[in-house]
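A reminder before we start the practical. When you read a complex entry, don't treat the lines as separate problems. The point of joint prediction is that each chain is placed relative to the others, so the output describes one connected object in space. Small molecules and nucleic acid strands, if listed, are placed in the same frame. In the example below there are two entries. Take a minute to note the order of the lines before looking further.
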Amino acid sequence: MSRGATGRLPVIMTIIVSIMLMVVPLPGWAEPFRPDWVALTLIYWAMMMPRTWSVGSAWIVGIIVDVAQGTILGQHALALCFIVFVTVRFHLLMRVFPMQQLTATVFALLALYQFLLFWINGVAGIEVALTNYWGPVITGTVLWPVVMAFLSGIRMRVQHGR
Amino acid sequence: MTSVDTVSRVPALGIRLVALLFLSIILMVLDHRQNHLQVVRQTIGAAVYPLQVIVDAPFRLWEWIREGTTERNQLQLELSRLQAERLLTNARLQRMTALEAENARLRALLEARAQVRDEVRVAEIMAVDANPYRHNIVIDIGEREGAYDGQAIVDATGVIGQIIETGLTTSQAMLISDPSHSLPVEVNRTGVRTIANGTGEIDRLDLPFLTNNADIRPGDLLVTSGLGGAFPAGYPVAVVETVNRIPQEPFADVTARPEASLDQVREVMLIWSARAQDPEEAPDE
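Here is the predicted structure of the whole assembly.
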């Protein structure tokens, strides 16, 4: 019980930081290429701790992202929920993937994620430039190894540090 | 290391996913079609507010440091520039008072309703990027200060946008350059009325409903017409940039450049227009 409680706080902190990174102002040209930090963070934790960080937490985080960004309430929640489901489903497989293969999987997950957002925007009648969809997929994939290394460091400290 | 993380709950996972997806869809329908979730948004928004403040803080700090370390002679330069500017504005204001009095007299003669002055308040744009799919800004005035949906936002040079969502202490506003934003305007020179649509480009508006023989030319100033009800009349919006008359098409292809520098301002003004708050008041056109 106490292990779960202490283990959770650092993860929550990383998620909060990722939400903040989603609203940090960027220069206009870089705006469409903002990596989806929240998605990357949640994919990592869902892969490594699928019991604690699963679809439920992804949904709550998604709702917070929706409010922070002013998108339709439920849009990011649905998309995050879905990719986290896929991650949890295949987490054992993903853990043994070599880095290239894992990065390719993350690319597919991010593409799926953006497709869901695109689809919801389409149904709601919100028109968006296509760059806004593939931009985050590319930068997110490129940054995945970095994000993973960083979060692994945190996980190691949480699980073995004490 | 991960003996706890086994797949024992996978069947339940699918059910949870379906339930949450369903819940998301219900939320989206309620939010998008009926706007019923203002309270939910505001509650979660209150939790998100500290995050926005933290994100905004370094930018504010940087601004503060820059102001604090400005050189003395630079400050003096700035001061003299501002004094000169104030002199000019004051001179213009003197004429304005006379004109306003004259306008009121003429309106009285015509038995038209007197124009009410709009109440304004300065708001600061928070250094927070909002909705990636829209041209949005977040400002630091919310429902607590009396901001309301559809409220007009201007800066010193022209119209910027309108509030689309109010939180308790912050609001989201849509810029006039957003592709889904339309603004009723009129040409200041001739009084021709039309609609200015956002294009998604920060420095271009589209005027799709001007006929080929409409009296409009590059350099014309567009001001708000006040017809939509949201914006008070008479605020500058944009300057016509190109007029392209295509003989076989019914409408001319007209673009305009917004007067306000939409991506550079830091301080904006919120307008409480007398008419928007008082719906039964007849438009004085």
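Discuss with your neighbour: The two ends of chain A are 16 Å apart (CA to CA). What might explain this?
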